[in-house]
Design goal:
Radius of gyration: 24 Å
Largest sheet: 5 strands, parallel
InterPro entries: CheY-like_superfamily, Sig_transdc_resp-reg_C-effctor, Sig_transdc_resp-reg_receiver, Tscrpt_reg_LuxR_C, WH-like_DNA-bd_sf
Strand content: 5-15%
Protein name: Response regulator transcription factor
CATH architecture of the largest domain: 3-Layer(aba) Sandwich
Distance between the termini: 39 Å
Strand order of the largest sheet: 2-1-3-4-5
Number of domains: 2
Pfam families: GerE, Response_reg
Number of helices: 10
Order of helices and strands: EHEHEHEHEHHHHHH
GO molecular function, one term: DNA binding
Keywords: DNA-binding, Phosphoprotein, Transcription, Transcription regulation, Two-component regulatory system
């Protein structure tokens, strides 16, 4: 059985003491921590998609944590982000939350609270990646359908009966039954209910390109 990879957390902070103490703390939980002394170093050496969580200092020399966050949002995948802030940085951190950050914590952080937040980030990252993998798998299955089978699939997902689908597409009910059977085989399901469960989190227009 394939084991789950050890979650990796990036610590991006220009204070060496903070990086070292956070690394030791995270590693006590069995997570892997990688340290970066600046946002620029992370952009040069790090790949955000490798990590389950980013811990980012808001205020750093050079590029700030918020500027890094904005830059990383342009990429393919941004894991959950926890910002570390000084007292005067709270308004900036609140804006970051509105912009999609997971959380912000004031320095010095309570260790138990930080670990709880990181764990939440890791769980969210796992769920998000699982949803992405599921959507990719479903998209690949749909890509195997013929154009007419996709038409029938869309009508099935709208809850239409075979006779209604036949009338809508101007084909015979028997032809609809044949398409339905082939769709179930290609999508690896046994019923319309199972098909609906597979597709429930995926917008139909996005899935079928219509």
């Amino acid at each position: 059985m394939k084991s789950n990879p050890i979650p990796m957390v990036a610590i991006i902070d220009d204070d060496e003491a903070v990086r070292d103490s956070l690394s030791l703390l995270l590693e006590t939980e069995g997570w892997t921590a990688l340290n970066y002394p600046s946002a620029e170093d992370f952009l040069e050496e790090g790949d955000a998609s490798r990590f389950a969580c980013l811990i980012v200092d808001v205020r750093m020399d050079g590029m700030s944590g918020l500027e890094l966050f904005t830059e990383l949002k342009q990429g393919n995948y941004l894991p959950p982000v926890i910002f570390l802030t000084g007292h005067g940085d709270v308004p900036m951190a609140v804006n970051a939350l509105k912009d999609g950050a997971m959380d912000f914590m004031q320095k010095p952080c309570d260790q138990r609270e930080l670990l709880a937040r990181v764990n939440e980030c890791i769980e969210k990252d796992i769920a998000r990646r699982g949803a992405t993998a599921h959507q990719q798998k479903v998209s690949e299955l749909v890509a195997e359908l013929t154009p007419r089978e996709r038409d029938v699939l869309k009508e099935i997902m709208l809850g239409k009966l075979n006779k209604q689908i036949a009338d809508r597409l101007d084909i015979s009910t028997k032809t609809v039954e044949v398409h339905r059977a082939r769709i179930f085989i290609k999508m690896k399901v046994h019923s319309a209910m199972e098909l609906a469960a597979m597709l429930k989190e995926i917008p139909m227009d996005e899935l079928l390109g219509s």
